[in-house]
Structure formats: structure tokens, C-alpha cells
Specification:
single chain; three-stranded antiparallel beta sheet; 15 helices; globular
Length: 393
């Protein structure tokens, strides 16, 4: 039988499922995430799934030495669009340009139950649906096939996703179709559990007694970088809180429900294989002393000629080319893997313990045992930190 990625190495990108000619591979729930399973009765052992899987294959499809990247500091000139976005509104500007050219756009959106799924559309309303970061692993079941059908019909597609999802899409396409797809990868911290997210939504709904109809993982009500979440309920109530006071965001920060393979992500290196890469431009003030950061700034990385040509024609983008070496060394903390193997293994073990406890006791128990900080707890935390800095205590 073909070799599929293990629980420890599967990134959940669904490349294997997308390339299977007999639809013998399905993703099935097992704890925090779903993993690929083969129907042995229908598998024809063609090996396409192994070739599409970066984890099994052990490397990229293209040579990274050939990648010549251009780094930009970028933001959307439309202040309203920028204010709604997670960082500089760059993704929105790219999507709007694609739609204006008659392309289709594909990205992660909430469904009516606030589950995160990839959607494909050429309608203007997709801009609102895919806007903003969603720190949950998106369900891409069937979407690569939809993109493939669109390209067969002579459509161009702009695809937003994590680096592994972008590569999975490319791997699922015949060589002749790949020129019709422009991939834009998000700088990714790691994929968080859809199961934990759904339990969190249920818990918040029970507390308020109303359906949760909207969630902003990175509200800018106090500016970019304030790390605040905003929960909107069916009765119009909106609850805003610092990320450290939000259980889901606290667990996200501690990697309690991050997919294990993300700790050894093969894409977390300087050179990226997607046509474009976007993310928060953390540390930008180290490069520009007078840059306005309150409404957010993006880093935009063009890794292919196709990507470079596209961004130059986006009218809403304000671009400033920056030195790649300085960006990676002085800014963009977390862009490349900097943790030691020992540190990563310690996090993985802590995460496994958390998942085992969660499976045994459920969300409510874990929320009480691993709570978000209270305001006074935050004050005490800062005092202890300052005392340690001073060598006291």
C-alpha cells in the first residue's frame, strides 16, 4: 500500500486526497485533527499520493536555489480596507485586483456555523468573507478539485492559504494548468485544531445565551499589534478582550492545540515556493523609524516572476522594496524556524499531554484548568517578570 504521512508528520494539506484518481483517500477525525486513510478495496497503488506529499517525499518539488525573492513593506491605500484587515490589507488589495481582471479568488472563510472552510468565487462579496486571519486549520476538502475545474474552463485563480496548502494545490494540478494559478501563502504560526475551535464557540454561546455569528482573531479597535479578539453575537452584542484574556487565543499562544507536524514544518525557511507570501511585518520599526504602524503593515514577498509581475499592477498597494537580509535578521520574528530541537520537543510533549487530558475530560474542564489570564493575574505576571529582570526573587 502507498505510504501516507503519519500523525506526527501530516500537515493536513489534503494533497494526497486531491490527487487520488479513485478517491480512495479520505480524512477522518482522530483527536484534535483529521488524518488521511486509504480504502484498500479501491486503491490502485498508483503512488500519486506519495509523490504529492511533501512529508513523505521529503522535499520541495522545485529547487529552492532557483528562487529569487523580492521583499516589500506593503499596505493598502484604502484606509477603510486596511482598518478591517489583520495587518496592512495587502491580501484584500491582491484579491480585488484579481477580481477586476476576471479571475476567481479562493481563500479561508467562516461558514454559518463559524467553521473555517476554503471557498472559491468570482463574486465581489468574497472579499469580505476571506478578509482577516483565521487561526484555525481550514477545511480544504474538494476545493483543489474546484480550482482544477475552474482552470480547465480557462479561468485564472488567485489562491490564498498556508504554505503547505499552496504547495498541495500546485501538486494536485497537471503541469499545463499551473500557470493559471497564482498562489499567495500566509506566514503561518501553525494550524490550530478545528475541534477545539468548535468547542470554544459552543462554550462562548452557552455563556452568553446567544449564537456567535462573528469572530475577529485580531481586532484593531486599539490598533495593530494590540492582540485583541472580538466576538459578535446574534443579539448584536460584541465582546472585545485582550488575547491573553481569551481562552482560545491563550491556547494558541502556548501551542496547546497546534498540529504536531507544524513544529517541523518544511516551509518555515527563508525561501518560499509560493508565488507570493504575505504576513504581519513585525519589527518593521527596526528598519524604518518613521513608519506609521497603527493601522498595520504587511510584508509582501514575491518569489516568482509571475508574482512580481502581478503585484506591480495592483493600484491599491503602496510598496516599498526592502533588503531581504535585514528583514529576515532584524524583523519578521518567527518567519524562519529559530527554536532548538530540544525546545520543540518540549512543546510537543506538553501539547500531547494537553490533548490526552482534553480527550478524557473535554473543553469545559480544560478551560478551567488552563484558563486565560485575568487582569490582576496579568499585573502579577508583569511584576514578577520585572523583578526577575532586576535580579530580585
Amino acid at each position: 500500500m502507498p505510504e501516507l504521512a503519519s500523525h506526527e508528520t501530516c500537515l493536513g494539506c489534503h494533497a494526497c486526497e486531491a490527487v487520488c484518481p479513485t478517491r480512495s483517500i479520505t480524512f477522518q477525525g482522530d483527536g484534535f485533527f483529521t488524518y488521511p486513510h486509504i480504502d484498500i478495496d479501491t486503491c490502485i497503488q498508483c503512488g500519486k499520493c506519495e509523490k504529492a506529499c511533501t512529508s513523505v517525499r521529503g522535499g520541495y518539488e522545485k529547487e529552492l536555489d532557483d528562487v529569487s525573492q523580492t521583499f516589500y513593506c506593503a499596505y493598502n491605500s484604502d484606509g477603510e480596507e486596511r482598518a478591517k484587515a489583520t495587518s496592512g490589507g495587502t491580501g484584500g488589495a491582491l484579491a480585488k485586483q484579481a477580481l477586476s481582471k476576471g479571475w476567481m479568488v479562493c481563500g479561508a472563510a467562516f461558514d454559518e456555523g463559524l467553521r473555517v472552510k476554503h471557498i472559491l468565487s468570482d463574486k465581489e462579496d468574497i472579499l469580505d468573507k476571506i478578509r482577516g486571519s483565521k487561526y484555525v486549520q481550514s477545511d480544504v476538502t474538494g476545493v483543489y478539485e474546484q480550482v482544477r475545474e475552474a482552470v480547465k474552463g480557462d479561468r485564472q485563480v488567485l489562491f490564498f492559504g498556508t504554505p503547505c496548502q499552496c504547495q498541495a494545490l500546485v501538486a494536485s494540478l497537471p503541469m499545463a494548468q499551473r500557470a493559471s494559478v497564482l498562489t499567495c501563502a500566509i506566514i503561518c504560526h501553525g494550524a490550530n485544531s478545528p475541534k477545539v475551535w468548535e468547542d470554544y464557540v459552543r462554550h462562548e454561546e452557552q455563556k452568553v445565551g446567544k449564537k456567535l455569528v462573528g469572530y475577529n482573531f485580531r481586532s484593531k479597535d486599539k490598533g495593530w499589534g494590540a492582540y485583541r479578539s472580538a466576538l459578535t453575537f446574534q443579539n448584536g452584542t460584541t465582546i472585545r478582550r485582550p488575547a491573553w484574556n481569551d481562552v482560545f487565543m491563550t491556547w494558541f499562544a502556548h501551542d496547546y492545540d497546534t498540529q504536531e507536524a507544524c513544529f517541523h514544518c518544511p516551509y518555515r525557511i527563508e525561501k518560499r515556493v509560493a508565488d507570493l507570501t504575505i504576513g504581519d511585518f513585525w519589527g518593521v520599526e527596526k528598519l524604518f523609524s518613521d513608519v506609521p504602524t497603527r493601522q498595520g503593515l504587511s510584508v509582501l514577498i514575491a518569489s516568482t516572476d509571475k508574482g512580481k509581475d502581478f503585484v506591480k499592477d495592483v493600484p491599491q498597494l503602496v510598496l516599498t522594496e526592502v533588503d531581504a537580509v535585514l528583514v529576515v535578521k532584524k524583523a519578521l520574528k518567527g518567519y524562519v524556524e529559530q527554536r532548538t530541537e530540544e525546545k520543540r520537543q518540549a512543546i510537543i510533549q506538553r501539547r500531547k499531554t494537553f490533548e490526552e487530558e482534553y480527550a478524557q475530560h473535554g473543553y469545559d474542564f480544560m478551560a478551567a484548568k488552563y484558563p486565560a489570564q485575568t487582569y490582576w493575574g496579568r499585573v502579577v505576571h508583569h511584576l514578577r517578570f520585572r523583578l526577575r529582570q532586576l535580579g530580585i526573587g
